[in-house]
From TrEMBL:
Residues 54-118, 160-257 form the Cyclic nucleotide-binding domain. Transmembrane segments: none annotated. One of its GO terms (molecular function) is cAMP-dependent protein kinase inhibitor activity. CDD domains: CAP_ED. SMART domains: cNMP (SM00100). Pfam families: cNMP_binding (PF00027). InterPro entries: cAMP-dep_PK_reg_su-like, cNMP-bd_dom, cNMP-bd_dom_sf, RmlC-like_jellyroll. This is Putative transcriptional regulator, Crp/Fnr family. GO terms for cellular component: cAMP-dependent protein kinase complex; cytosol. It comes from the Bacteria.
Length: 281
């Protein structure tokens, strides 16, 4: 799966570029680079000792070429966002980005991203939409490659720390707590999604075409992608053990994103990490 890159922009804009530029201008930093400048290289990651920070980019003018092992894999054009996966997941870059022409960009580092989400929570929804588009493309590529297997998937790290999880429980009423017995199906691949779920107790298996790709434990979540895109479920979920889940509707989900930037940051990290895990299969 080395040909799958998560630095590249979606094949076509899935967002209002004028709105995205507004967020980058409000919280980010302008950057002008000459043709031939390397913005980042494959394998790069932040280094506090060298005062190096991960950044994501919005391209205002120019063209940026993306390469892996010197082979071109795509071109970033005006209005595209790129480089966000490394900033959000803290994992090394999966590609090299080099300016093909003189370029004008806006950049966001981690602190600026958090400031942007605090000032305009809807920016989190825009980023989630972009990342979910990438994740759906990844899943489609994994399916077509035949690399899904019957082996158990990796255990998902908890999305919400204990403090944030307890805050969620306190903010939501008791009707959102739903028990599921072991082996019961919670959601079905291909169906419309009306809820996302946070695991409070027990564990849940996530499966694509019958192959388990992840196991979700306490503090983990699933089902959020269909809420954001209003598309079909891309995976099924089955209770591995007796479970207690928080069932969150779209309206409640949107309220949480808008009222709690930490919730949005946690969601972005979860989507990014899932894309990375699937690419490693």
């Amino acid at each position: 799966m080395d040909n799958l890159d998560f630095t590249a922009p979606p094949p076509k804009p899935t967002f209002d570029t004028r709105v995205a530029l507004k967020y980058f201008k409000a919280s980010g930093s302008p950057l002008d680079v000459a043709a031939g400048t390397t913005l980042f290289a494959k394998g790069d990651r932040a280094n506090a000792l060298l005062f190096q920070r991960d950044r994501m980019y919005f391209l205002v003018e120019g063209d940026v070429e993306l390469t892996v092992n010197r082979a071109a894999i795509g071109t970033v054009c005006n209005g595209d966002i790129f480089g966000e996966m490394t900033l959000i997941t803290r994992m090394p870059r999966t590609a090299t980005a080099r300016a093909k022409t003189d370029c004008r960009l806006y950049t966001l580092d981690k602190d600026q991203l958090h400031a942007a989400l605090g000032a305009a929570p809807e920016f989190g929804l825009l980023l989630m939409s972009i990342m979910i588009t990438r994740l759906r493309d990844t899943i489609a590529a994994v399916k077509s490659s035949g690399m899904l297997s019957g082996e158990a998937g990796a255990e998902d790290a908890g999305v919400f720390d204990k403090k944030l999880l307890n805050k969620l429980v306190d903010e939501l009423d008791d009707s959102t707590r739903v028990p599921y017995q072991a082996t019961r199906k919670i959601m079905e691949e291909g169906q419309a999604g009306v809820m996302m779920y946070v695991v409070l107790e027990g564990s849940v298996a996530i499966a694509i075409q019958g192959s388990t790709v992840a196991t979700i434990g306490p503090g983990g979540m699933f089902g959020e992608m269909a809420l954001i895109t209003r598309g079909e479920r891309i995976a099924s979920a089955i209770a591995q053990t007796d479970c207690v889940l928080l069932a969150i509707s779209r309206n409640v989900f949107l309220d949480l994103v808008c009222s709690n930037p930490k919730f949005a940051v946690s969601l972005l990290g979860a989507v990014g990490n899932r894309a990375r895990q699937l690419a490693a299969r």
